[in-house]
From TrEMBL:
The lineage of its organism: Bacteria, Bacillati, Bacillota, Bacilli, Bacillales. This is ABC transporter permease. The chain crosses the membrane at residues 74-103, 110-131, 143-164, 185-207, 246-264. GO terms for biological process: transmembrane transport. GO terms for cellular component: plasma membrane. CDD domains: TM_PBP2 (cd06261). It is found in: Cell membrane. Its main location: membrane. Keywords: Cell membrane, Membrane, Transmembrane, Transmembrane helix, Transport. Gene3D superfamilies: MetI-like. Belongs to the binding-protein-dependent transport system permease family. It is a multi-pass membrane protein. Residues 75-264 form the ABC transmembrane type-1 domain.
Length: 279
């Protein structure tokens, strides 16, 4: 029993240390977002309770974000891009997965292997050719240029395909025998059963777009289409770094994914767990 207790105490201690390593920097960023710029590192050495408690509390950094930095528009841009990618990605990904599971056509296996390759290749490898394509279409510095390249998501297709493989084939066969069209099978029978993987894919797409930096940086030039991750780089200038405003923007950028993920985490985990390797 003593050995069992010691092992649990050691495990709890490791968890506490790991939690502190993750939470203390976030706590410092949160507290520093309510400090004046000149007080950001004033209480760092030695570390005391003042390090994690603002002595000169101010909302100035948050006010600057929305009055001078235009973060209202930036948040709307980021949310719009994420929502558009979720809608388009779910529709395209689920329909592609439906075709891979229920249709037979030449080159099906090879095409699916190509789909798998799309999320295994680093984005940096295709960023320049993708920019050339988007530029030739006249989509540079537009919402279309930010959104459309991200709609086709190989990982989302894979998740839906694996989930569809777990569904009883008798449901689809019975519907087809009763005269249901493939569109009706897809919309009325298959998709209503896919709530967990739909939530998982939605969160995956949205968080991926919310955290996207490289592609929006490449494809946009004006402030009108700026998104949150690109905007975070504006606080570091040639002459100064506006740490309090940066910390405030970081805290706000974290809130949206957390608010979405916490109430839906059960469906997210369930959707990932149900995407087995059945062939």
């Amino acid at each position: 029993m003593n050995r069992f207790t010691r092992s649990h105490l050691l495990l709890y201690a490791v968890h506490i240390v790991l939690a502190l390593l993750v939470l203390l920097p976030l706590a410092f960023a949160f507290v520093s977002s309510f400090r004046p710029l000149e007080d950001i590192y004033k209480y760092m050495s030695p570390i005391t309770w003042k390090t994690f408690w603002p002595s000169n509390f101010t909302w100035g950094a948050y006010q600057m974000l929305f009055t001078e930095r235009g973060f209202g528009q930036i948040f709307l841009n980021t949310f719009f891009v994420g929502a558009a990618n979720v809608i388009g990605g779910l529709l395209l990904g689920s329909m592609a997965a439906f075709a891979f599971v229920y249709f037979e056509f030449r080159g099906k296996t090879l095409l699916f292997l190509l789909v798998l390759l799309t999320f295994m290749i680093p984005f940096e490898v295709i960023s320049i050719p993708l920019y050339s394509l988007v530029n030739s279409l006249g989509w540079v510095d537009t919402y279309a240029g930010i959104i459309i390249p991200g709609i086709a998501n190989g990982l989302v297709i894979f998740l839906f395909r694996q989930f569809f493989l777990e569904l009883p084939t008798s449901l689809v066969e019975s519907a087809r025998m009763d005269g249901a069209s493939w569109l009706r099978v897809y919309t009325r029978i298959v998709m209503p059963l896919c709530k967990p993987v739909t939530v998982s894919a939605s969160l995956l797409i949205f968080i991926q777009q919310w955290e996207s930096f490289l592609w929006p940086l490449i494809v946009t030039r004006s402030k009108e289409y700026k998104v949150i991750q690109v905007a975070l780089s504006d606080f570091v200038t040639e002459y100064a770094t506006y740490w309090n405003e940066m910390f405030a923007a970081v805290i706000l950028s974290i809130l949206i994914p957390v608010v979405l993920l916490l109430p839906l985490q059960r469906y997210y985990v369930q959707g990932i767990a149900n995407t087995g390797s059945k062939e």
